[in-house]
Specification:
mainly alpha, disordered C terminus
Length: 435
């Protein structure tokens, strides 16, 4: 049963995902039509997370102090404004440089308010019991899958109209405005005054000092490892997805309209894996074990997916990538919320989002440059290598994370006494009081 208070947040997740997926089949061709390189496309992709990096810790800490609702509403208003800038760029295409600059502004404005991902996660942690968090976060993933299923198709169809890329912009404006109105009418505050942080440090340099902020957190040892896993995972994910549309076109010979259909298929896979595969695995392995399995599967799948030259062979292998992503994304989020102190939830989510934003900033730039210089196969191989490092870190952190969450990780429980003696066995049975 989905809590009524969570529904506006799930709608926000859908709208944010739609906004991103609308651009997947559109933005690469807009950039090329304006005579710009694929590297410029990568920079535009990177502009969003770069801005998000600056905004997320500030919005997260501010939400701990002032409450979640006002921050979420202001953030959604910023998303609406960003699409207004994107629509404006349509009327400036006589000057390619000016049009690209306005598109960059739209990406930056959306990123500055896109820090609401951390506030949305904190909101769900406020209202959902720990036992149900993985289910709710997996539902978020499924909703993102629905957006991935229909967003590219909507983007392709609206961009194919006589309006060109103004079509997706107008569609996103309508969706964002409707969401803002519905949130204003229905969104309830989730953080009571007595549970709010007593103060807010407005100094942006202090807010952006992620290492200093992390040192002050409860359960910081486990959180350090989770933040590192989040960063490496996001590098892997963003590096791969940045060049995906280009890979479809250049390697598999897919048309612009076909990119939307490819995303449709991947969206179906994601929904299935989030709603069916993830619950089955999580019930067996718990959050930490499921996260480790997904992180182990992902680099292997990425290594294999470089090989196909046809869609028929590519799609089955992409299912493996999809399973890895579906197992990791909600479980990382769930483990973070389990370990975070409730008075620091927004701050922890802000740091986590900022770490992901840093990775999402660098990954498109590196992936775009690598793609331009060496091609897609090398780019995906680099993503696979990064995923392998992330899996190794998660494996090395298994005991710490199991202790912090109180989970009985099957692989640890089976091998702890033989491999590590009674200390590791004790660690898997302790750590129940993370609050």
């Amino acid at each position: 049963q989905i809590p009524r208070a969570a529904r506006p947040i799930l709608l926000l997740t859908f709208v944010n995902a739609i906004g991103g997926t609308l651009l997947i089949p559109v933005l690469p061709f807009v950039v090329r039509d304006l005579g710009q390189s694929d590297f410029v496309f990568a920079l535009l992709i990177a502009a969003y997370p770069a801005a998000q990096f600056f905004a997320a810790p500030i919005l997260g800490s501010l939400a701990d102090h002032r409450g979640r609702r006002p921050i979420l509403l202001v953030s959604q208003a910023g998303t609406l404004a960003s699409w207004g800038f994107f629509a404006l760029a349509y009327f400036l295409t006589d000057s390619a440089a000016l049009a690209i600059a306005v598109i960059a502004v739209s990406r930056i404005v959306d990123g500055l308010t896109g820090g609401n991902a951390s506030v949305a996660a904190a909101y769900l942690a406020d209202i959902v019991d720990e036992d149900a968090r993985t289910r709710v976060f997996s539902l978020q993933g499924a909703i993102a899958g629905v957006a991935l299923l229909i967003g590219p198709a909507m983007g392709s169809l609206s961009a194919a109209s006589p309006l060109g890329f103004l079509g997706p912009a107008l569609l996103a404006i309508v969706i964002s405005a409707g969401t803002l109105a519905w949130m204003a009418a229905t969104l309830e505050e989730s953080l009571p005054v007595e549970k709010r942080a007593p103060s807010f440090d407005p100094n942006p340099l202090h807010q952006l000092n992620l290492i200093g902020k992390a040192r002050a957190l409860t359960g910081r040892s486990a959180l350090y490892r989770l933040f590192s896993i989040q960063g490496l995972f996001t590098l892997t994910f963003s590096g791969y997805t940045t060049i995906l549309a280009l890979w479809y076109v250049d390697r598999l010979g897919v048309s612009e309209a076909g990119v939307g259909l490819m995303m449709l298929a991947i969206g179906v896979f994601l929904i299935f894996n989030e709603m069916v595969t993830l619950p089955l695995v999580e019930k067996r392995l718990g959050d930490v074990g499921t996260m480790l399995l997904g992180l182990t599967l992902l680099p292997v799948a990425l290594f294999l997916i470089r090989i196909p030259t046809s869609v028929v062979v590519f799609l089955p292998l992409s299912v493996l990538v999809n399973v890895g992503l579906a197992l990791v994304m909600p479980t990382v989020q769930s483990v973070v919320t389990q370990i975070a102190d409730e008075r620091e939830e927004g701050q922890v989510q802000g740091i986590n989002t900022s770490v992901a934003a840093v990775a999402s900033t660098f990954a498109p730039v590196v992936a775009g440059a690598t793609y331009a210089a060496f091609g897609g196969s090398v780019t995906i191989l680099l993503a696979a290598a990064t995923g392998g490092v992330c899996a190794a870190l998660a494996l090395a952190s298994l005991g710490v994370l199991a202790a912090a969450t109180g989970e009985q990780v099957p692989s640890l429980r089976r091998h702890a006494h033989r491999a590590h003696g009674p200390v590791c066995s004790l660690a898997t049975r302790s750590g129940s009081g993370h609050r």
